[in-house]
Design brief:
264 residues; Rossmann fold; two-stranded antiparallel sheet
């Protein structure tokens, strides 16, 4: 699997427009290969796992969409996003690239290859429990650093101190658990200053810290994870899933009927 062109520039997987948002057509193995190749070189790169919620947000916000366009890898996190890539472009993706699962697979490879990881986001008790759980699951994993979000904009001095901590840690992968779209905004703003692959994984921090439950595998495989999470947190998530899922379906139908309305 070739990752570099003849000039030494990384050749990331191709992207295709889904509802006007460019998504990478890729699976777990290819995504892991590219991310770890960059991580071993400590090459700055940006990666996010985009489900329906994030895709609809980007389709309705030119600012957010323009940030995502500059990401190196935008993997199809939700099954509906994978279905759309296959339906619209004849792709043959057999599975989505689920953010939490991508994180675990990256941690496994990082442990095997000696690549350090950094955890940034969520609350102090969540990120600390996440660190302990990952180190227990992967004894050889080097967690080069971990810290929670301050839940406010950082001052210029605080931001530079954070960048220095990450870069000085030697980590090749930085996992961001700030939630969408804050984590993507952070990664985009630091794409030149952080010398590691920033991977936006959202709810993975809550899941692997034990703070929240993950949907059963059978629901994930059938594109029903949204329903499980809605049942867990109906008051917080009803609008995200019921409204954004409907918007996604409408936009997808429009793209099927009038593809020229979307830059493809």
């Amino acid at each position: 699997m070739q990752t570099m062109n003849h000039t030494g520039v990384m050749m990331w997987p191709p992207k295709y427009s889904v509802c006007g948002v460019k998504v990478s057509s890729t699976g777990y193995d290819e995504a892991l290969h590219f991310i770890m190749s960059a991580a071993r070189r400590r090459t700055g790169a940006t990666v996010t796992a985009l489900a329906v919620h994030g895709l609809v947000l980007a389709s309705r916000s030119s600012d957010f969409r323009s940030r995502l366009e500059q990401f190196d890898l935008v993997v199809p996190d939700g099954q509906p996003v994978r279905f759309a890539l296959n339906l619209l472009y004849g792709q043959t993706l057999v599975d989505r690239v689920y953010g939490p699962e991508l994180m675990i697979r990256l941690c496994r490879q990082a442990a095997e290859t000696g690549v350090g990881v950094y955890l940034y986001g969520s609350y102090p008790e969540v990120v600390e429990k996440l660190r302990l759980n990952l180190e227990q699951r992967f004894p050889h994993l080097k967690v080069a650093g971990s810290e929670p979000s301050l839940f406010r904009p950082l001052t210029r001095k605080e931001d530079q101190a954070l960048v220095d901590r990450v870069n000085d840690s030697g980590a090749g992968v930085v996992f961001l658990g700030l939630g969408c779209p804050l984590q993507e905004t952070f990664a985009h703003e630091h794409r030149e200053s952080i010398k590691a692959v920033q991977v936006c994984v959202g709810a993975a921090f809550d899941f692997y810290s034990g703070h929240k439950k993950m949907a059963p595998v059978w629901m994930q495989r059938h594109g029903l994870e949204w329903l499980f999470r809605l049942m867990q947190e109906p008051r917080r998530l009803w609008r995200r899933y019921l409204v954004t899922n409907s918007i996604f379906l409408i936009k997808l139908i429009v793209q099927l009927v009038q593809p020229k309305r979307f830059w493809v």
